[in-house]
Automatic annotation (TrEMBL):
It comes from Fructobacillus pseudoficulneus. InterPro entries: Nudix_hydrolase, NUDIX_hydrolase-like_dom_sf, NUDIX_hydrolase_CS, NUDIX_hydrolase_dom. This is NTP pyrophosphohydrolase including oxidative damage repair enzymes. Residues 18-154 form the Nudix hydrolase domain. It comes from the Bacteria. The keyword Transcription regulation does not apply.
Length: 168
């Protein structure tokens, strides 16, 4: 299997700090009271948004569409930008310094009937489904929890995207 972009770059740079762009998406259920979240293979607790790091030459919108297909088997299209967040850590779970520049998008199903075809890859994504948002579900890391709160309380009030910075 071919290494992804991050693995190829880390092989060259080692543990030195690097900036990586990522894209993730929010897919609402038809009643807009639950969103599609995933149980991740790299975390024992909480949920994550479908998404991941961009590959070289890929736009953020292309990345979120690709990641949804890879992780959930669903075909989505981007509706709008929700926001941009940065998160800096001196030591990620792989022992590397990293800044993640994360772009969140609201997405919709290309075919609304396709939701019945939801299927996880069993590797990156162990389980996925529409999770009710009252009460807010626990996310896998604090930055994702903060992002979920912003999705719920800032984007429904306005179509203006938000910006967030955090350090750990």
């Amino acid at each position: 299997m071919e290494q992804n972009y991050i693995a190829r770059m880390r092989a060259k740079v080692g543990h030195e700090g690097m900036i990586f762009p990522s894209a993730w998406g929010v897919l609402w259920n038809k009643d807009r009271d639950a969103i599609l979240l995933e149980k991740r293979g790299d975390s024992k607790k909480g949920y994550g948004f479908p998404g991941g790091f961009l590959e070289y030459g890929e736009s953020p919108m292309q990345a979120v569409v690709r990641e949804f297909k890879e992780e959930t088997n669903l075909d989505v299209r981007v509706v709008r930008l929700l926001g941009v967040a940065t998160h800096v850590t001196d030591l990620n779970s792989w022992g590397d310094a990293q800044e993640t520049l994360s772009m969140g998008f609201e997405v919709e199903l290309v075919d609304p009937d396709q939701v019945a075809e939801l299927k996880v890859d069993g590797d990156e994504t162990l389980d996925a489904g529409f999770i009710p948002l009252n009460p807010l579900p626990e996310m896998f890391v604090p930055a994702a929890q903060q992002t979920l709160d912003m999705v719920m309380h800032e984007n429904e009030e306005s179509n203006q995207p938000w910006l967030r910075e955090s350090h750990s």
